[in-house]
Amino acid sequence: MATIDTKLYVAIGVLAVLGGALYVADKKQKEEAEHYTPTGQAAELPKLEIKEADTKAINRITLTKPAEKEGEPAQEVVLVKVGEEWQLDKPVKAPANQANVKSLLDNLPTLKTSELIDPGKNAYDKYGVSDKKALHAVFAKEGGTVLDVYFGESGGRGQMTRIAGKDGVYSVKGYSSYLYSREPKGWRDMALFKFEEGDVTHVAITNEHGSYEFAKDGEKWTGKHAKPNAAPAPIQKFDENKVKDLVRAYRSLNADDYAEAGKTAADLGLDKPNATLILTMKDGGKKQIDFGSTAEGTSRWIKATGKDEFFSVSSWAADWGFAEPKKFQEADKSAAAAPTPAPANPHGLPGMGEDPH
User: Fold this and answer.
1) Angle at CA 95, nearest 5°, toward 92 and 96?
2) Are 140 and 146 in contact (CB under 8 A)?
3) What is the mean pLDDT of residues 46-63?
4) Quick check: 45 pLDDT over 50?
5) How many C-beta atoms lie closer than 10 Å to residue 317's C-beta?
6) CA dist 129 to 23, 151, 171, 192, Å?
7) Is the alpha carbon torsion for 34, 39, 41, 47 positive or negative?
8) How far apart are the C-alpha atoms of 52 and 182, rounded to whole Å?
9) Res 242: pLDDT
10) Neighbour-count burial for 285-306, b at 16+ CB within 10 Å, e otherwise
């Protein structure tokens, strides 16, 4: 009887051991299975959880774009926060475009890792996240780094990304290259003038066509023009709305671009300006623009009051400085109302502009 009990206990023990082993094996198998499921992979993805408090703490942003051509240096933009305002520190020192910086910071909380593309380092070049190919973005705060990432190619699976300090290529959702890869001028405050239209009382222009004087009398504008070396005379068929258009073109004037460091007035045709435009305000202040040679496209290099550097402005603004008298005259309505002449009839066919009889 004792022998039977002993065998029974042994059998129960063996079953318990086997059951435990099966449980452990089953658990391990489930864990390995979960590792390859979307849920398991998502659990292992590094988190990019940038909160609003994190963005408020950021006081330095460095954006490095790879060179477009072999042998050219990478393009580095550095933005620093001074008080409550952002300043451009590189490639030039200047006030930053506050709205563009805010848009960039507002984008950070939307960045989310969605997929592991490749776990190693060998695919960095393939997906454009290597040091030489990626856009490197570093967001720093006092005493640390909020985010350090390398953005590469973009596709249907998302934005290919490398996270500093972690091996592998990840797909990231929420990234917008428009926000991160602006040219330096896109990070700079390019405002030249800002005033109310009603504050302008006088406009003077000097160019190859002579000189112009526009004066505001109450709510009406008067206009005079003088050819070179001649006395001024009232502009015939003067249209004061054209002066209002001119003022409107300059009330919120932004530059297209700025000149490279080292460029001189002579380099840009500003040592002897081709035209000058002066706006006089009701408080007596003046805003002057000297126009130089053509910049990129149809833009013009200019020197503006209150600015130490040289900028370019669009032809839409610059053309007023080079205006002919007819630009300030009423349109010829008689020409517009004239009947259209009958088409020529070289073959003498009836119904083609001549009487068949």
Assistant:
1) 90
2) yes
3) 92
4) yes
5) 23
6) 43, 6, 11, 38
7) negative
8) 23
9) 97
10) eebebbbbebbeeebbbbbbee
